[in-house]
Write a structure and sequence with these properties.
139 residues, Alpha-Beta Plaits, 4-stranded antiparallel β-sheet, 4 strands, 39% helix, globular
């Protein structure tokens, strides 16, 4: 009887372990950080505002985007390592590469590019796989 109970306990433990192993979540695809820096032909405050407004109109609400922000170069950031050769920064974080790729061909993205290409002097795009993302509550 004791032998049966030990074998049963081991069997139940093994079954629970194997079931837990089967339930391990699959490794998720990394989120994608899409950071774009625009140098405008006309870097005036009015042109910068118009460009950010256009970003907000066409780029802010895409499926699969979990973070969106567009803004201007901060005048107070003039450290030795600060790259100041841009006017507008666009930051979009996508849940995965598929969401990023869908955004790239979306009609709103294409409309944004079409309407703003003449205002751009230079565009730099930095796409990265984001690992170990930690989100903290705002102040």
């Amino acid at each position: 009887m004791m032998r049966f109970m030990i074998v049963a306990a081991v069997g139940v433990s093994l079954a629970a372990f194997l079931t837990a192993e089967e339930r391990k979540p699959e490794k998720k695809a990394p989120m994608i950080g899409h950071m774009v820096y625009f140098k405008l032909k006309d870097g005036s405050a009015e042109s910068r505002k118009k460009f950010v407004d256009s970003c907000n109109k066409y780029l802010a609400n895409h499926e699969g985007a979990i973070l969106y922000s567009a803004g201007t170069l901060g005048d107070e950031f003039k450290g030795q390592a600060n790259d100041r050769d841009w006017d507008i920064a666009l930051h979009v974080v996508f849940v995965d590469k598929a969401a990023h790729d869908k955004y790239q061909v979306h009609p709103d993205h294409k409309k944004f590019v079409s309407e703003n290409k003449d205002a751009m002097e230079k565009v730099r795009v930095f796409d990265s796989e984001l690992a170990d993302v930690k989100v903290k509550a705002a102040r």
